[in-house]
Write a structure and sequence with these properties.
The chain is mainly alpha-helical. It contains 6 helices and 2 strands; from the N terminus they run H-H-H-E-E-H-H-H.
């Protein structure tokens, strides 16, 4: 559902734009797009500006499935988070957003680096924050 949501949000992204936005590895992202296409949930189209690139867009069937999934996700949200008071929900959302911002930015910068390099870089940033 996440790929469908992002395609719906971005409009008609290129495959590369979508995969980058999703923080996916390229082969995995291509496989997901192909699977969604086989299910009739997305379709590919030519990119007018770059004939080598392909764009993807959500189909009516994909939109229908996505809208139905939002209803279910809302129910899951209620049973998961209605135990928290509103201030706790805001605190949790803020903390999760901060982690997402840090890790998403870091991933985009070090996407092709080896684990040890990424780990060392993050540890150095954490130690810098503590001092």
């Amino acid at each position: 559902m996440t790929y469908l949501h992002v395609i719906s949000h971005l409009g008609e992204p290129t495959k590369s734009e979508l995969i980058t936005y999703m923080l996916s590895e390229y082969p995995s992202g291509i496989e997901i797009i192909k699977r969604l296409g086989r299910l009739g949930l997305v379709e590919e189209l030519a990119d007018e500006a770059d004939k080598r690139a392909r764009r993807v867009r959500i189909t009516p069937a994909g939109t229908e499935l996505l809208l139905r999934s939002y209803e279910r996700l809302e129910q899951v949200g209620h049973i998961s988070f209605d135990w928290l008071a509103e201030p706790e929900k805001r605190l949790l959302a803020g903390l999760l957003q901060r982690l997402d911002d840090v890790h998403s930015a870091h991933y985009r910068q070090t996407r092709s680096a080896i684990f040890e390099e990424v780990y060392g870089n993050l540890l150095a940033q954490i130690k810098h924050m503590e001092s």
